[in-house]
Amino acid sequence: MRDLRVESVDMTYQLPKGGSVQALKDVSFDLDGGRLLTLLGPSGCGKTTLLNILAGFLAPTSGTVLLGDEPITGPGPDRGMVFQQGALFEWLNVRKNISFGPRMQRVPRGEIERTVDELLATVGLRDFGDKKIYELSGGMQQRVALARCLANDPAVILMDEPLGALDALTREKMQGLILRLWKETGKTIVLVTHSVEEALFLGDRLFVMAPRPGRIEYIYDLPFAETGLDVEPRELKASAEFADKREEILSLIWEMEEEIMGHGGA
Ligand SMILES: Nc1ncnc2c1ncn2[C@@H]1O[C@H](COP(=O)(O)OP(=O)(O)OP(=O)(O)O)[C@@H](O)[C@H]1O
Ligand SMILES: [Mg+2]
User: Fold this and answer.
1) pTM score, whole prediction
2) Residue having the nearest C-alpha atom to atom 16 of ligand 1
3) Is any ligand 1 atom within 6 A of the Cβ of residue 13?
4) Which of 173, 196, 203, 237 is the most buried (most CB within 10 A)?
């Protein structure tokens, strides 16, 4: 199991017309392999930037990121990304979307077919392999995106608001699916969300980030993801322990928003 190690990462974007934006300042953390980290924080606090650095899509201005002993210097099959929506190949059917990575890696055909069958069952789309992407609901599309990511068997799954475009009921079901996949596969997951409830429910570790410059402000180790499959999710979310944490974090975020917007209104 490979740990993620982020050491003193700074990210400054240079703007085309001059000037710069410091998106991340001195971000450091260790994440043991197999943990589920959720990132929460106001818009612009650098969540997507951090995820893109972990994916290797962006190189930090300074600092290092390691997966196990290997520095992350670019994208690689050991890290998979799931976006909010729209990142599937619309012109390919479900099966071809899921098998895309293994086909690129020239995995033998029989093995690919077996993997795809397994993944279709895992994400509850057994009868949908031949459907086109546009024939699926938003929730189904996100299940395809998850399956496509899993087909590469990455050590780390990075998700940027993967459930953000879904209706409340579908979203709740998908949270259950993500928890189940996490437990079954033992993969490391880093998931960005705008929902305090989702960050609490899914994260066995939670970072609350703050903006200007983007940084990790609070770190929580949480019990809910561990119990989330054994208890009825609605019951868990209604528990006093969950509600207390939700209020605590909501007020942290409110304070940050107030600082950003300025006191007393403008
Ligand atoms: N390509 C870019 N060029 C210049 N500035 C950027 C670029 N990408 C992001 N930024 C700036 O960096 C900061 C962090 O952006 P980022 O997208 O990481 O925030 P975020 O936490 O994901 O926000 P949101 O919740 O709205 O998705 C913001 O101030 C943003 O304007
Ligand atoms: Mg973002």
Assistant:
1) 0.94
2) 46
3) yes
4) 203
